[in-house]
């Protein structure tokens, strides 16, 4: 009886060990490092694919439109060198263990920092109460959803704008903002500040600023308004005089055509000679 009981326990232990080994092989994991890969446009990136499978049968990486090469590898991991990455891409690491294949995917984010911030102020000279336009342009930057453009008056924020990416390729970012001129805005400096923040998935943070542009405000006084009124009145009178003169000239020309080349004086002389 004790022998049978001992054999039963041995069999149970053996089956438990066998089932746990098989389950362990089936429940293996595949990991990708870095988990959130980022790379500057046109540069290269290292990707590590690994597994906790005891005896992996096969492993590799799937990419599209990216040149790749295995740089180093061991039983449980493979390091791949991805070169000349131009746009956002999707990669998949895979391993096969005990006939079962598992995959782990990651998205590569391609970025380009704001190297040039072009700022324009139009017009640079404006009357109080009139609008002036601030334009900020950052060429060939990305990803746009990580970009923020801020318009500044001195150190004070006027307007801030974020963006949405509509394409995987690098794009230009534009910000146009209209402002009503105030008297206290005279001699103010305006600028544009750009920041590309890839955190928390990456430690990269980039920023750049435009050159300063100064605004001049013109406030018309009472004397200036009177001078403007006099100038306008003079122009209207001049237009009236020129119009009258033109009407007289055209009237004489029309009358000459109606009476012929002799005119009134020639007709009177002919009539007098006949009477004599």
TrEMBL record:
InterPro entries: ICAM (IPR003988), ICAM_N (IPR013768), ICAM_VCAM (IPR047012), ICAM_VCAM_N (IPR003987), Ig-like_dom_sf (IPR036179), Ig-like_fold (IPR013783). Keywords: Cell adhesion, Disulfide bond, Glycoprotein, Immunoglobulin domain, Membrane, Repeat, Signal, Transmembrane, Transmembrane helix. It is a single-pass type I membrane protein. The keyword Flavoprotein does not apply. Residues 1-24 form the signal peptide. Residues 26-116 form the Intercellular adhesion molecule N-terminal domain. One of its GO terms (cellular component) is plasma membrane. The chain crosses the membrane at residues 226-250. GO terms for molecular function: integrin binding. Coiled coil: none annotated. The keyword Transport does not apply. It comes from the Eukaryota. One of its GO terms (biological process) is cell adhesion. It is found in: Membrane. Belongs to the immunoglobulin superfamily. ICAM family. This is Intercellular adhesion molecule 2. It comes from Monodelphis domestica (Gray short-tailed opossum).
